[in-house]
Amino acid sequence: MRVDNQCLIWAVDNAPVDNKAGSSDQPDKCCTVRQEIVNLIRLLGNRYARVKTSIAFVDETFHVAKTESETSFYAMGATLVPISELQNTRNRIIEIVGDGYWHTTDAFHNGDQTGIRSFLRGLASMQVSNFVSTLRGTSSDDLERARQICMVQILAHLDHMNADLVVLERRDSSAKRNADTALFMRARANGLVKSSMQFIQAHPAAENLLWVPDLVCWAYRRFIALGETEWLRCLDLSEDHDLGDAEFRLNEKRPEPALRSSSDPDVRMGRMGASKHRSSGTIIAQISCGATLPVHKSMTELEPIISPINLKEWLEAEF
Q1: Are the C-beta atoms of residues 130 and 57 closer than 8 Å to each other?
Q2: Looking at the domain assignment, is residue 210 inside a domain?
Q3: Is residue 125 situated within a structural domain?
Q4: Looking at the 3D structure of the chain, how many domains does it have?
Q5: What DSSP string describes the chain?
Q6: 34, CA 20 to 30 Å: which among 100, 165, 269, 271?
Q7: How far apart are CA 268 and CA 310, in angstroms?
Q8: The domain containing residue 184 runs over which residues?
Q9: How far are the Cα atoms of 188, 313, 317 from residue 195, in angstroms, in the given order?
Q10: Which CATH number goes with the domain that contains 142?
Q11: What whole-number distance in Å separates Cα of residue 128 and Cα of residue 161?
């Protein structure tokens, strides 16, 4: 790949597409997938060329508790990258984990815990910000609605952070991809995000920056669902920093009285009322660290920016 004017322009002339698919009328499945990735790379390059400030790369994670000691939740994670740092961040990722393909769950199951720790610690050297929007208490029956809630909340936050483009890791089925696009389009049409914000779904094989929210979401899930602290500890460490006996904990906050939820029908759900009404029934938390850790935080769990009550009513009316 090559970069001009800080915007990604991918070299696809030598992309690994097998044009010799044989004499069958049906193209080879592998060839089709590779061509689709090449098309995504071109499309992403065109979208990036229009970006003025930053791009958010978004993935999801969830857990349905199997025991009383576990926590059920759904979360959307976003990695916000300034347009000027796109290529630097890509290069840093390649330095850490290579230029092949990364999926954190696969790395864990394949025993590559060292690679996961190195990648997490490497985030400290990247000029990116990581955020998570979480809904707790979800069940296997309401995962799609939980996804909608978390996605709209994080889109609203990214709007306030002046993200020009949201790149969502796409789901497997076209029906689910269409549902995500419809949610974004309706949120934008109803003023929950600015009209200029753009949205595209992509595959991590076409953009390695999607590996970062995948990594962060994986570490967050291991902490929230299973209570494993070691992975999130790595987020606030440079590669040469010794953690020692520092602790990670979850600080549970209660919203200030002015941020109480409201059932008032006059309360506006969109951007005008976003900062005034937040649910007191939602657990508001931020990942924090012991005093021996650097002040820098590599991941923040976001407060709801839209009234959860109004958002729930809007989703029921729209979908």
Answers
A1: no
A2: yes
A3: yes
A4: 1
A5: -EEETTEEE---TT--------S-SSPPHHHHHHHHHHHHHHHHHHHHTT-SSEEEEEEEEEE--SSTTS--EEEEEEEEEEGGGHHHHHHHHHHHH-SS---HHHHHHTT-HHHHHHHHHHGGGS--EEEEEEEES--TTSHHHHHHHHHHHHHHHHHHTTEEEEEEEPPSSHHHHHHHHHHHHHHHHTTSS-TT-EEEEE-TTT-GGGHHHHHHHHHHHHHHTT---HHHHHHT--TT---TT--EEEEEE---GGG-----TT---SGGGTTT---TTSPEEEEEE-TTS-S--S-EEPPPSS-HHHHHHHHHHH-
A6: 165
A7: 8
A8: 54-318
A9: 6, 22, 21
A10: 3.30.420.10
A11: 13
Closest listed residue to residue 235, CA positions, set 120, 108, 132, 105: 120
308-318 vs 143-160: helix axis angle to the nearest 10? 120
Reported as a single tens digit per residue, the pLDDT across 88-101 is: 999 999 999 998 88
Give the tens place of pLDDT for each residue, 161-211.
999 999 999 999 999 999 999 999 999 999 999 999 999 999 999 999 999
Locus of tokens 């009322």: 273
- Asked whether residue 9 is domain-assigned, the answer is no
What is the C-alpha separation between 231 and 115, in angstroms, rounded? 12
The token pair that represents 211 in the structure block: 């590996």
Q: Does residue 15 lie in a domain region?
A: no
| Burial status of residue 205 (CB atoms within 10 A of its CB: 0-12, 13-18, 19 or more) | middle
